[in-house]
Design goal:
Alpha-Beta Plaits, about 10% strand, 4 strands
Amino acid sequence: MYIRPKYHEDGVYHVYNRGVAKLPIFLKDSDYFDFKQIMRYLLVGFPEPEDKRLSFSRRWRAENKPVSFTADPSSNGMFKGVLDLLAYCLMQNHFHFLVRIRKVSDTLQLPISEFIKRLGITYSRKFNHDNQRVGPIFQGRFKIKEVGTDELVIHTARYIHINPIMAGLVKRPENWKHSDLLEYFNFQPAAPNTMSKPLFVLEYFNRSPKAYRDFVEAQFTEQDYQKISSIALENKP
């Protein structure tokens, strides 16, 4: 029986969800782009333009930000300093996040739930509008499982990053455009305001992108899958 874990500071969690009836949640490149921009809006935030005379929605349009952000104008950077996105991969009909809780407050006692709710609502509105459809696009509530050991953290990050390989979409994981794997392979410690935070996982590899690349590119065996089976998507991609 699936039991949702308790949230706590410094906890690391694998978060995932798929499309209703396993249908696609991304139909074109711009869908992936919009989803990632909403993620960035919530996790990092965008600087507001200096011209305060414009209405909020017009200011976003003036800065060429997706109009979908007007659906949730109070959430710009809401989760900065609260959640760290350690790794992610967006697949055609599902997504994977590896998330660390940095802070739990009175206003955000369930930060991951609030983040996924705002992300899902905003993206669903835009997806439905663009495709002239109604109704939910995700298969019920998202799933979340705590990643409770150091070994499991690195194996979960690897599992997330090789999802496109397991699904037969690309031959090399870095060729999939909709994950943060290249941020690992090209890691720059001083990069400001990055949406993904690879350093947490790379610390287990002495901050060496090459060591992590070797780990990711090593053959993924059935034994490796068993190590992460407790936190993986119920069915292999």
